[in-house]
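Hey, does this match?
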Amino acid sequence: MATPLKILVCGDVCGKFNVLYGRVRNILKKNKDFEMLLCVGSFFGTSVESEKEWEAYKTGSVTVPIPTYILGPTEKLERGYFSEVSLDSGGELCENLTYLGRKGVLKAQSGLQIAYLSGVEKSEAPEEGCHFTQDDISTLESQCQDESFKGLDILITSCWPRGVSQFANRPDGIDPDNCGSFQISRLAEMLKPRYHFAGHEGVHYERVPYRNHQVLREMAQHVTRFISLAQVGNPDKKKYMYAFNIVPMVSIDKNELVKQPPDVTEFPYKKVLGGNGISAMHKGEEIQQQSLSSSQNFFFDMNSTGNKRQGNTGGESNFPKRPRKGPPPLKGSCWFCLGSPQVEKHLVISVGDDSYVALAKGGLVPDHVLICPIGHFESTVKLTEDVLMEIEKYKNALRKLFHSEGKSCIIFERNFYTQHLQLQVVPVPQTDVEELKDIFREHGDFNSLSLREVAVNTELKQAVPIGAPYFVAEFDNGERLLHRVSNKMPLQFGREVVASPSLLNMADRVDWKACKVSEDEEKKMVAAFRKKFQPFDFNS
């Protein structure tokens, strides 16, 4: 692999040139190997003091200590600083300081490729030269679809993408669902940068990486890391400088490039883009058909947890310090996150946009399956609306299959000593729902577990606080029995009830470990179930 390049990135400078370059000089004293400084957001200020500072750099009495690349103006008062160059194509403003232009791709000799888009949405800065247009974005997308283009390492924009914190930690001080640009979200979707830097919102925010492909439905791609930086010299001392190492994409082995880090989340922009996320990957359905037609092979390597994130200068951490409000952090490797190397992919039966169905390992019966979210969610009450809706579609499809065979369907979840949501779906001989509820209540009474009914039209999160442990069983008419765990409960309670003499009469199969079969046998069971499920599978 090629030698990593060292890059510096900063947020809005707003004319505080001496503060910025004073910090840069201190960094360069410790490490002279940094290639460049990228500035996102507003570089120039509007105060008399910032004008005086700029004059010193412009005349050469003070030098810029590192090759610096900046974006264009975001407000009318900045435009005067760009009068000697073209706002469209850019140019050198003083020695070692270059305005990149309105939009384009900077290709370094090392092979590093940096896409840039100047300005903000027109509604924020209607002045000509301070905002980007749809034509700018279309042109930039076209440049990155050229046959000679090998993939984008870095994207820099002034604006945030709208909805970037979906599935992830949320930033401090702003609402990411109501700031940023839909067009930037679309641009990030199309260009798939490895790093996306932005400013403009005045906050420091480092999002955990997100995927650029749908797991098991599309060829694996590299992840994207979004990072926003605060204003240079801000009084709250929020982080405004980011230092990192990067090997250009053209110099990385494909298998190494697509490794998924353990904290990766799903693609965040699907909801804000109207449910058409990852729209550039038109071959997804074809790949899905290929992958699901084989019980043995899938089309990407998940045998590594990926690279560790690089540190930055000054001892500052590159990891978010705030608690997450999306899917919880993994506690070690997860056997059910579909992008995890621990997943036994030969058990997967069907893959949707946000969830999947897999054969249960050590199932009670051959048709015992699981419904799981693709991303890391601990329980039903933590699911987002999109994931919950798709899981409901899978429930209904499986019920229709089992009803066609003259069977009832029991679905149960144990959110107690579990790391990733697993809905256990088990067909049983056709049985009246009231009788099934009585059977569960009897076993609950025997184990001192109280089971109360949850109405069909009541969401589970209305009955259980987020984070509270519980067990829930659901029946064909949508009615549920809920136990709120306050002390202990048998971890195999659901299996014990279904395996009891009143239903399957398989007491010897309560322990799933005693029911395991060989991998070859599992593959045969998956193929058989997939074939009969296909007419009911909305992904077929």
In short: The mean pLDDT is 86.
